Amino acid sequence: MISYREALAKIAAEVGPLEPTSLPVDECLFRSLSESVKAPFDAPRFDNSAVDGYAVRAIDLAQASPESPVELPLCGKVQAGDAGSLAYPEGSTVQVLTGAAIPSGFDAMVMQEDVSAENGSVRFVHPAERGAHVRWQGEEYRTGHRLFEAGTRITPQLLASLAGLGMAQVPVTRPPKLGILATGNELAEPGASLSPGGIYESNSFGIEAAAKTLGLTHVVRDRAKDDPDETRAKLEALLLECDCVVTTGGVSVGEHDLVRAALGELGVREVFWRVAIKPGKPVAFGVWESEGRRRLVFGLPGNPVSALVTFALFAVPALGALNGNGFQSQPEWPATLASELHKAPGRMEFVRCELEHTESGLLARPIEARGSHMLGSMGGASGLIHLPQNAEHVSAGSRVTVSPFDWRWP
Length: 410
Ligand code: AMP
Ligand code: MG
Fold this sequence. Notes:
About 20% of the residues lie in helices and about 30% in strands. It has helices spanning about 5-10, 155-165, 205-215, 230-240, 260-265, 305-320, 375-380, and strands at about 20-25, 35-40, 50, 55, 70-80, 95, 110, 115-120, 120-125, 135, 145-150, 170-175, 180-185, 185-190, 200, 220-225, 245-250, 270-275, 275-280, 285-290, 295-300, 335, 340, 350-360, 360-365, 385, 395, 400-405.
């Protein structure tokens, strides 16, 4: 069996960004830039005011004091959106509102709270420093400045920056389409009545929710009975539609574990099957190539904890790579273990935990119920403790590595 790191390396070697495309800016959340972005204009684009107040020439106020105020005739008003292109005589002032262009010739702003304005003139009682409350053209960056690199993830704040650059369409990596196939005769849709021996299907819901949190918009869920033809047909349909297909269940060595056989019949090249981890040992990964397109397939185990954990460990980094963010395995943070843990040597173990920020750093509280079928204990988990392959006893207070369940790409 290969190790967790070996499995990651094998996936990384098979994945890269999908082709570039262009999307409307308001559809770009969590996409990644497929090209770098340069400034199409100076920022600010024109000298403008940071305050509501009066534009002056600093030199005119050099002698102003409460004892001998300087009074300047008020010659106009510029508000945000006005061109501000009129020329005003020397020795005058103009009212300029926040964000409005400062007419040429003026070099400082005085806040309206600091003056008295009446009868067409404005009285100033302090000198103004050149540049006071002025946002100069180009002070943040100049036209052509390289602002954002290809591969950058489009967060809400980056999306706002792109809109602010006037970009209606944004060059992005095409977002991956994800297909999810839950296999098993026992599975019933939540809300349906359960037959004896039946259970509610939960894997595809957790995986779809995780995918949406990652920003995937095209996610299809389907279910297949433990029937070779149905399994193969539904897999084929998802492979044709999606860039990445994850199945849950039917991937171990049971008589009804049909997924690997179906993948083989469809021509999926198996890259690995079985990883020395717990939960999730029977996980499989393969690649389907057809008509110049590559699809990734993850055969995830059926146990609800195993399915979601292996999705996080293996499929999330792969989807990130398809999305153009580069292949990044789950973040690994140092934490202190709150209570002792025992495990059998041989497989790396991921133990669900609650993560808590304390004054002395991150504290990881292992969740008692560790069985991979114990979905209840998954609900409250906020992370996974990594226990090394050969560890057997890890005492309370030890430094451990944890990965938070925050379902995001860097
Ligand atoms: P399998 O790998 O198909 O043998 O499934 C392992 C265990 O996970 C069995 O107890 C299944 O009933 C359960 N299981 C499989 N798929 C799902 C699913 N989609 N939702 C909830 N439990 C599942
Ligand atoms: Mg099954």
